[in-house]
Amino acid sequence: MSERAADTDTGPGEGHGDPWWSPRSVACGQTLEARLGTLVLKLAHHEGEWALATEQLDEDSAGPRAEFTLHDHHADAVVAERFIVTGGDTVELVPMLADRPVVIRPRSPVSLLPGSQTTMYLSTPVTLRIQVRGTPPLVLREVPMLRLSDTWFGPSTREGELCYAGRTHARHALEELPRRVHRVITAVRIVNHAPSALALERISLPVPVLSVFGASDGRLWTQAVSLQRSSDTDMAALRIDDKPPAEAGAVEPLSGPRQQPERGGVVRAFSLLFRE
């Protein structure tokens, strides 16, 4: 069977069509190719099975919009993994968050003085869940759209937790954030009730307890988050709103949290390693 382009779209924002996370029909004998920021995937539907190949790009190579192509494939199409699946021809690409907190460094050192507060817009990479629609859905694979390095977050090697190191900057204005398909935005309000200044050099965002929402402009958001520090420690009271902030516009829920917040709502949110 000769290869031919059957469908191409770019999603909302800078192109036309449905949001990139919309379900897509891939009939037997077809291959869906997608470029989602830093992730390129090829998903081929064969008789009784699906085959998947993925490639990760540098963030500098990531485009601002999603691109999809659906075409007929050759019988000997080369792919990396095969999954035996009975029935179903609808693919769902579900944006999830990472399975560990992500530690983010602001663009430049910031000190939050006693009694002050600020809102920062933090972006963290998507983990893409690739599944075939069913009851329940048949999950083929979860793929991080951008691989992050490990980092330890805590006052010592004996106290703290293993996190991911975020390759991004915290920004105070939403318009400063570049449009990136592979990232989710979190508006974080930080309040310093402590008697000492708080150096915001590393912030741990507990993404496993957050949900993902899709906005009408193609951006991804989590609920708004509030961190309130009341003493001279690295701990903060965590409050998670029910939905993203108003500036996100109209949104729809796409995926829930990986885990529930611990009772008491107190988390290690700041690094005191660089405190004076």
In short:
With 276 residues, this protein is mainly beta.
Q: How many domains?
A: 2
Shape: elongated
Structural class: mainly beta
What share of residues are in beta strands? Answer: over 45%
Describe this structure in words.
The protein starts with a strand and ends in an 8-residue tail after the last strand. The strands form 5 sheets. Strands 11, 16, 19, 20, 21, 22, 23 and 24 form an 8-stranded mixed sheet that branches. The chain contains no helices and 24 strands. The chain has strands at about 5-10, 25, 30-35, 40-45, 50-55, 65-70, 80-85, 90-95, 100-105, 110, 115-125, 125-130, 140-145, 150-155, 160-165, 185-190, 200, 205, 210-215, 220, 225-230, 235-240, 250-255, 265-270. It has about 280 residues and is an all-beta fold. A hairpin with a 4-residue loop joins strand 19 (about 210-215) and strand 20 (about 220). It folds into 2 domains: about 5-95, no CATH class; about 95-125 and about 145-270, no CATH class. Residues about 1-5 have low confidence and may be disordered.
Helix-strand blueprint:
Elements: E1 5-9, E2 24-25, E3 30-36, E4 39-46, E5 49-56, E6 66-72, E7 81-84, E8 90-96, E9 102-104, E10 111-112, E11 117-125, E12 127-132, E13 138-144, E14 149-153, E15 161-165, E16 183-192, E17 198-199, E18 203-205, E19 212-215, E20 220-221, E21 225-229, E22 235-240, E23 251-255, E24 266-268
Parallel strand pairs: 9-15, 16-20, 16-21
Antiparallel strand pairs: 1-6, 2-8, 3-4, 3-6, 4-5, 5-7, 8-12, 9-18, 10-17, 11-16, 12-13, 14-15, 19-20, 19-23, 21-22, 22-24
